[in-house]
Amino acid sequence: MTDKVKELVSECLQARDMAYCPYSGFPVGAALLTADGAIITGCNVENASYGLTVCAERTAVQRAVVEGHTRFTAIAVTCDIKDRFVGPCGACRQVLMEFGSDLTVYLTKPDGTYKETSLSELLPLAFSSAHLAKN
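User: That's the sequence. What structure does it adopt?
Assistant: Structure tokens below.
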């Protein structure tokens, strides 16, 4: 594990601890690695109107964009499930795809162990901006 991956995993675990999830009790953290090496974190933020809840991955993407980042190389995501690796929801996969399919994804357990995969593996045959081109 490289130092940057260790840092990314550590940051996603810390972000999970900041989750606001009074309804589901399901904290999620994400840490997004930008092309220039910055790490931007996010956690899930729930709302009593459930549809307004924002996932950790989307919070990280939105924070990154506000800070001027739109090129990403990796994301680490975690929740508090200890016995298996959990990936981003479908909506988050689609939002991440907006910024490129070559993203490395680290599915991280609470103890810091992780499984490396890719966004294109998690979202095959994805819809993208290329599909919006006129014929």
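DSSP finds four helices and five strands in the chain.
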